[in-house]
TrEMBL record:
Keywords: Lyase
Family recorded in the similarity comment: Belongs to the enoyl-CoA hydratase/isomerase family.
CDD domains hit by this protein: crotonase-like
Name of this chain's protein: Enoyl-CoA hydratase-related protein
Cross-referenced SUPFAM superfamilies: ClpP/crotonase (SSF52096)
Pfam families in the record: ECH_1 (PF00378)
Stored InterPro entries: ClpP/crotonase-like_dom_sf, Enoyl-CoA_hydra/iso, Enoyl-CoA_hydra_C
Length: 140
């Protein structure tokens, strides 16, 4: 999840320094926006404006600059109210399953789900839902 202000510019200019983007920049970018557009950005050093970055899926939201912090804070607040183990597992399953074939990705998902079904947080979440109250997750 990436949120950008409407005046954001995103780019990779490492080739100007005679190096390539590191920390997975070449691999992650090409998987998000496609090989051709990633090569274009990397080789030319040209920047994407926020709206084009959203169209390409590089950012999920574009908001006015004055709303950027509050938007990010609101999203983070919504996430931390969820079961922490489920949040960790969801991230792991999406990230590891994304580059795997579908059968492998589904096995990863099923294993994660099986682990979560045995947690105190799952029991608390279900009970809170039935009692129409906010869950008090313990991370266990």
């Amino acid at each position: 999840m990436r949120i950008a202000s409407e005046n954001a510019q995103l780019g990779l200019t490492e080739l100007d320094l005679a190096v390539i983007p590191g920390a997975g920049g070449t691999q992650r970018l090409s998987r998000v926006i496609g090989k051709g557009k990633a090569l274009d950005m990397i080789l030319t050093g040209e920047f994407l404006l926020a709206d084009e970055a959203k169209q390409l899926g590089l950012v999920s939201n574009v908001v006015p600059q004055r709303e950027l912090f509050d938007t990010a804070k609101d999203k983070a607040t919504r996430i931390v109210q969820k079961g922490p183990l489920a949040v960790q597992m969801a991230k792991l399953v999406v990230n590891k399953g994304y580059d795997a074939d579908m059968d492998t990705a589904l096995v990863i998902e099923n294993l994660a789900q099986a682990v979560l079904y045995g947690t105190n947080d799952k029991k608390e979440g279900t009970q809170a839902f039935l009692e129409k109250r906010t869950a008090a997750f313990s991370g266990k």
